[in-house]
Amino acid sequence: MNPASGLPPRERSGRTSIAQKSNKPQNTQNTQNTKKTQKTKPKKAKSPWRTFFKTIGILLIVGIISACVAAGYLVYKADKGLDAISTVSPDEKPLPPELSAKVKPVSMLLLGVDTREDSGGLNTDVFMVATMNPVTKTATVVSIPRDTKVELKGYKSRKINAYYAAFRSQDKDKANDDMKEFVGKYLDIPIDYISMINFKGFADVVDALGGVDVNVDMDMRYVDTADGTNINLKKGFQTLNGEDALNFVRYRKSNTKNPTKGSSDFERNRRQSEVLHEMMRKMQTFDGVTKVPAIIDSVGKNLKMDVQKDQIKDLITTYFTMNKDNVTFIPIEGNWKSPYVYLDDAKFEEAKQALKQELTEK
């Protein structure tokens, strides 16, 4: 008893203790009997379905987290690889939103250049122009024979594959801009960008994709000890590695003891379109998507684009999933009269209009 208040002492909780509240002794015997008479509730058996779905849920969460981490890694790797591809200074002012490839049609000159030692210069073996529309998600790619004779006011008449080397010899720093201006006048469209890939870059992309499945239309045999070319392909459907795919699109003539049939520029252009079509198909598969960083890494030293890094990203995100059937390949044909190809005027005009349509259609 607290003499000051006349109340019994309290516990720390502030409540009066049960033992002090009642002067009657506890009946421990009755309490024990009560505990004995209480029935123990049986534990419920765990549902196997509940366990199953719980396990699946955990796996899904882990899978999603892993996928996010993997996706982030892929984006990081791809982003680093683009630094080597873009020739535009990172300090250059970003493009305004209205010029982004996400909303504005773009045109690009695509050149395949032989930069190997003993190749004899920087002539372009592959000469293509592409226009792409982000609204219609379509593209047109026009392939021009490398031996096409060009007669254009203000320019010396020569084969189309010789102009880039000529511009480089005049002014290396201005060569890309001079080339875009020339092609723009030739096709009567503005050329926004130029993309240049050498032979090794092309072969590396094909290898990174695991090869390309194509129908080799004829036996091909050619040897050049000077630059190491050794073309030896048999007719038929097959999977070609990078080197063989390059030989497939480049083959022109045979020089062996038992020569194989020669190939025209028009046939070469059709093969180039076939291989590009197959590369697009493989890149859009799940396996191809996961190989994007490897592809970018493999071509980093062999592909150059005068496109800002962010614009390259916009091009990839806008057109990477484009249905391959929405890409129209137009190999322009003409007449061969050594040493030039003379384009068919009507077909050349049709190709020019097709390129223009992509840039204006909304």
Automatic annotation (TrEMBL):
Keyword tags: Membrane, Transmembrane, Transmembrane helix
Keyword Membrane on entry: yes
Stretches with biased composition (Basic residues): 36-46
Keyword Transmembrane assigned: yes
Domain Cell envelope-related transcriptional attenuator: 123-284
Record-annotated membrane-spanning stretches: 51-76
Pfam families (alphabetical): LytR_cpsA_psr
Span list, region Disordered: 1-46
Record field: compositional bias (Low complexity): 20-35
Family named by the database record: Belongs to the LytR/CpsA/Psr (LCP) family.
Name recorded for this polypeptide: Transcriptional regulator
Organism the protein comes from: Paenibacillus selenitireducens
